Amino acid sequence: SSTVMAFYQNGVYLLGAAAVAGLFWLAGIAHATHPSLEFLVRPWIWPTSIDFLTMAACGVVASAGMILLSQAYRLAPANGVATFEYTGIIWSPLWGFLFFAEVPRSTTVIGAALIIGAGLFALNASRRRSSAPAIAATCDPA
Questions:
Q1: What is the mean pLDDT of the chain?
Q2: Based on the domain organization, do 45 and 26 belong to the same domain?
Q3: Burial class (CB in 10 A: 0-12, 13-18, 19+), 70
Q4: Total domains, the chain
Q5: Alpha carbons 110 and 23: distance in angstroms, whole number
Q6: Enclosing domain of residue 36
Q7: Rg (CA), the chain
Q8: Which residues of 8-43 are buried (b: 16+ CB within 10 A; e: fewer)?
Q9: Helix/strand/coil percentages in the chain, nearest 5
Q10: Are residues 71 and 3 in the same domain?
Q11: How far, in whole angstroms, is CA 141 from its chain's centroid?
Q12: 66 and 83 part of one domain
């Protein structure tokens, strides 16, 4: 079921996070110079009740999204659902710009265009391939 799939997805994410934390601990990484790593190895600050509520809300929304996405893949053709999933390539830079004032770099735009183009090409090719047997079945050379 989609709930079981979402459960296992969350479990894999949790195990991955634990593995990365273990690697950081074994490597003795206590400080970093890169801003993204500084965030990971900064001193512990106990979350406030608002922080806990925010994390709980994020967990509920993420779990609901995983359940709904799993259900979509179960009920609809995978290539159609994946096409809609590609819209994340558009939404992610948009939210980054709106919430964090991050302007997407040209490499981001080029990469997104390549991925979207490849997805549309694959979708179009699969549609042509699925209609080809019907045409071939009607054309009997004998």
A1: 83
A2: yes
A3: buried
A4: 2
A5: 33
A6: 1-75
A7: 22
A8: ebeeeeeeeeeeeeeeeeeeeeeeeeeeeeeeeeee
A9: 80, 0, 20
A10: yes
A11: 47
A12: no
Lowest mean pLDDT among 45-49, 69-73, 81-85: 81-85
- The number of residues in the chain equals 142
Residues 69, 100 within the same domain: no
Q: Is 140 left (phi over 0), alpha (psi -120 to 50) or beta?
A: beta
- Are 30 and 83 contained in the same domain? no
Q: Tokens 């893949």 map to which residue?
A: 73
Q: Which two tokens stand for residue 127?
A: 């549609």
Per DSSP, the residues of 77-124 read -HHHHHHHHTTHHHHHHHHHHHHH-PPPPHHHHHHHHHHHHHHHHHHH
Instruction: Quote the pTM value.
Output: 0.56
In whole angstroms, what is the distance from residue 77 CA to residue 84 CA? 11
Residue 42 has which token pair? 């900064």
